[in-house]
Amino acid sequence: MIETMSGLSLAIVGAAFAVLLAGIGSAIGIGIVGQTAAGVVTEDPDKFGPTLLLQALPGTQGIYGLLIGFLILQRTGMIGGNPMDITMAEGWLYFFSAMPIAFVGLMSAIAQGKAAASGVLLIAKRPEELGKAIIYAVMVETYAVLALLMSIMILFGI
Amino acid sequence: MPNSDRYAYAVGRIRAMETRLLDRGKIDRMVEARSADEALKVLGESEYGEYLADLGSVHQFEKMLDAELRRIYVELRKISPEPELINLFAIKFDYHNLKVLIKANKLAEKRDELLVPEVGNIPLAELIRAVSDDDYRNLPAHMRQAAEKLSELLRLEPDPQLVGLLLDRAMYEELKDAVDAQKSPFLKGYFTSLVDLLNIKTYLRVRRANRPKDFLQQALLPQGNVDMNKLVQLVEPLEVLVDRLMFSPYAQVVEEGIQTYQKTDTLTRYEKLADDHLIKYAKQAKYVTFGPEPIIGYLLAKESEIKMIRIIMVGKINQLPTEEIKERLRDVYV
């Protein structure tokens, strides 16, 4: 299979991975927060607003993944209908440019989901501390952003 | 995916429910109320508020507590991803009911008002049928064996103490199996402390009643960490017991509890300290995000709260001085 693969297919595999893994991570993360929030809102419906805010936080990794996937497709000419002829070596570069956001996105979204779910528990008891709950969850975001940065740097360095 | 994420919804609900537990402030207001009526009114702004309208007089406060206990068990069985966890805590009500029924049936001690319906795992009707037909086949193994043995022994010698002795033993065996099945170190630790503290109390009581060593051995439960049989002899002074438990987690409870016991000759203080020790242990659950711990913690907090309201109400109805009621009150979970 490897012999018949062109550099372009490798680049597309990379793009798919970025969206796949980061998306899975975000879905799991948002799911955890959603479950916890549903528990809190069952008892206290007024908490819908603040819990929704926290639930949205682990969603960014999926968006970052999509962004990298999109950029790879754009730079290889897949978007626009003129696929470029890329060598295997270049294909690998595109492939690896997707890896930071794919893996860090996956793990950080789950971790952020847990932090945000704990934040939901925090505001169940102390609704006035919503800001702090958000900050704790946002701290995890740093690493997703760093991974996104590296993915972009590799991609534009090719 | 970690297994504990199953508890996400349950923990969310529990944390929100915890905000409605009675805090120290409300408890203090109840204690300082001038009359039983006034104490009950403090509960108006709490979860107990909905029952207050149906109470004819303060003397019916037990009805309110029963209703709340039932509500908590029904609710938690629904919320918990593992209903077995809640059933474990309901086992004690089955044994309690069985004790009351056997005493009524075999020893003519009729105290139907003590029965706790609709909380335990076994329907009360089933227990009534089992006791009146003397047929325990449908009951759980440990309970069945104990009940059959008990029914035989009572025919020879109608000793009410046997009922408690045999059924408690069976209950803690059943509890141990249930606790082990849950594979929760938190629950296991709680259960071990519960048994140990109970064994220390049993030791003190047996000693006070001047019972022989065999009786003590029969009464002590084997599921704890501290082996009282080996630790201390009945003839040794109580200071030895305090000394030997100096480096156990129960050091404080035993030291202060026994000091007060020697002075006042009652175990009230020890019981309070033991309960506080258990609630303190349960408080660890507050720092667990996902897992069975918060559910267990809430259940224990609620049971303790119900116990406290009972202490206050009984005290107020009997017009005990405020200080005396305060001494008996337990620490709160929140």
Explained architecture:
By secondary structure, chain A is mostly helical. In chain A, 81% of the residues lie in helices and 0% in strands. Chain B has helices at 8-18, 24-32, 36-42, 49-52, 61-79, 83-107, 124-133, 141-156, 160-182, 185-208, 213-219, 228-231, 238-244, 251-264, 268-282, 293-317, 322-328. Chain A binds chain B through residues 28, 32, 35-44, 47, 114, 117-118, 120-121, 124-125, and chain B through 1, 5, 8-19, 79, 289-290.
Q: Report the structural category of chain A.
A: mainly alpha
CATH architecture of the largest domain in chain B: Orthogonal Bundle
CATH H level, superfamily name of chain A:
lithium bound rotor ring of v- atpase
**Topology-level CATH name of chain A:** Four Helix Bundle (Hemerythrin (Met), subunit A)
Measured distance between first and last alpha carbons of chain B:
31 Å
Any idea what the shape of chain B is? globular
Distance between the termini of chain A: 25 Å
Largest sheet report of chain B: none
Number of helices in the DSSP assignment of chain A: 5
Q: Give unreliable regions of chain B as ranges.
A: none
Mean pLDDT of chain B: 90
Number of discrete domains of chain B: 3
Percent of residues in helices of chain A comes to: over 70%
Report the portion of residues of chain A in β strands: under 5%
